[in-house]
Amino acid sequence: MYKYSEYGYILKNAIMILLLINVIPKYKSISLILVLIGYLCTLLNDHLRYTYFYKNDKKYIISLIISFLTGTWLIIFIKGGTEFYFFMILYEIIISLDGLLQKILLISHALLYFFATNINKAKVSSILTKTFWKNNGFDFLFIITTYAMSVILFLYLKLQITERKKVQDLNKELNLAYEKLKQYSANVEELAIAKERNRIAADIHDFLGHSLVALIMHLDFLENVLNQEYKNKDNIMEIVRKTQNIARESMQKLRTTVYMLKEEKSDLKQSLKELINTLNINEKIKIILNTSKDIENIAPEIKNIIYRTVQEGLTNSIKHGKATKIIINIYIDKNKIELVIKDNGIGCKDIIKGNGLTNIEKRISNYNGEILYNSNNEGFTLHMFIPIEKGKV
Q1: From 33-47, 218-232, 264-278, the region with the lowest mean pLDDT
Q2: 349-361 pLDDT, tens per residue?
Q3: Locate the Histidine kinase/HSP90-like ATPase domain: which residues (predicted)?
Q4: Mean pLDDT score of the chain, rounded to an integer?
C-alpha cells in the first residue's frame, strides 16, 4: 500500500475538526453526543489506517469500507460540508490502490456518494419520474461533473507522484552506480600505483642493489689486500673505508626505499632480515630477531614505524655503541605492540637524539605510542610500544 503524505493526513483532520466546529451549534444533548461519537470513530478509524493498517492489505480495505459507511452517515445526517470527507476517501483510493480492487472501490464509492447526496431530495421511487429530473437534473449533473473532475484531478496527481517516485528511485540508482564507479576507479588507480611501485622497487633492487653489494664486496677484498701488501697505506685505507661507508649507507637507504615502495601487505619479517643482512655484511655482529607469529597482520603504517625504528636502533648500536650482539624482540598482545632492541655495546650517559630518532618519536606519538631509552654503560636498550584496539592488530 502506498502511504499518502503526512501533510495530506494532517490537512484532512484539520478540515474535519473545522467542520465539526461548524455543525456543533446545530445539535443539542443526545444528538450532539451521537455526532461527536460518530466523528471520533471516523477520525480514529482513519488514524489506525494511516498509522498501522497500510502495512496489511486486509485490515486496510476493511478500514476503508468503514470510512465509506461513516462518510455516507456524515453526508446524510450531519451535512454542513461533510462531502469533503468523501472526496478525501476518493483521493486515498486513487493514490493508494491499483488494479481491479481500485476499480471496485471506485464504483462502490461513486454509488454511495450519489446515494448519500440525493437520498434526502426524494423517495427512491420518484427518481425515475420526469418531475424529479426536471427539478433536480442540474444538481445531479453538477454532482456527476464534480465527481468526474475530482477523479481526473486525483489521477493526474497520482501520475505526478508516480513519476516523481520513479525519478527519485532512478536518482538513487544513479547515485549508487556513481559511488560504485568511483570506488572501482579508486581501486583501479590504487592497483595501478601498487603495480608501478612494485615495478620500481624491483628495478631498484635488481640493478642498483646488486651493484652496491658487489661494490662492498670488492672494497672489502681491496681492504684485505692492502692490509697484507702495503706498509704505508694510511691514506689509501682511509679512502677505502670512506668508500665502504658510502656504499653501506647507500645500501641501507636502498633497502628502506624498496621497503617503502612495496605493497601494504609486504613481509615485515623478511624486510627486517634483509636489513640485518645489509648492516651485518661481514657477519662480525650477532643480530637475533624474535617476532610474534601474527606480526604480518598489523597495519602497514605501523610496520613502517617498526622498520624505521629497528633501522635507526641497529645503526646506532653498531656505529656508536660498538655492539657485537644485538637482540630484537617484537611482540603483539591484546593491548599493544612492543619493540625492544637491546645491545651489549658501550652504552652512553647522555642520549643525543638526531633527526632519525626525533622523526621516529613523532611518528610513534601520532599513534599514541611511546619510546623509552635505557643505558647504564653496559649496553643500550630501546623500548617502543604502540597501543592497539582490543581484539585488533
Answers
A1: 218-232
A2: 777 777 777 878 8
A3: 305-389
A4: 79
Which element (helix H / strand E) includes 266? none
Please give the distance of CA 219 from its chain centroid, rounded to a whole number: 57
Please compute the mean of the pLDDT values over residues 192-197 and round it to a whole number: 75
- 92, three cell numbers: 486515498
Q: What is the DSSP letter of 134?
A: H
**Residue labelled with grid coordinates 599493544:** 336
Residues constituting the chain: 393
How far, in Å, are 134, 150, 273, 318, 345 from residue 322 at the CA level?
123, 98, 20, 5, 5
> Domains in the chain, ordered, with CATH?
6-176 (no CATH), 285-393 (3.30.565.10)
Provide the b/e sequence for 345-369 (b: ≥16 CB within 10 Å): bebeeeeeeeeebeebbebbeeeeb
Structure confidence by residue, pLDDT tens digits, 159-194? 998 899 899 999 999 999 998 888 888 888 878 777
DSSP strand pairing (286-291 vs 325-332): parallel
87 pLDDT above the threshold of 60: yes
Candidates 85, 80, 75, 84; CA nearest to 118 is 75
Largest Cα separation within the chain, whole Å, is 146
Residue 382 host element (H or E): strand 380-387
- Upper half-sphere CA count for residue 345 (Cβ side, 13 Å): 26
Cell match 629497528: residue? 310
Q: How many helices (H) and strands (E) does the chain have?
A: 11, 5
Judge contact between 60 and 68, C-beta under 8 A.
no
Q: For residue 266, give the C-alpha cell.
A: 609486504
**Nearest-5° Cα angle at 62, 57 to 66:** 145
pLDDT, tens only, 278-298: 776 556 788 999 998 888 888
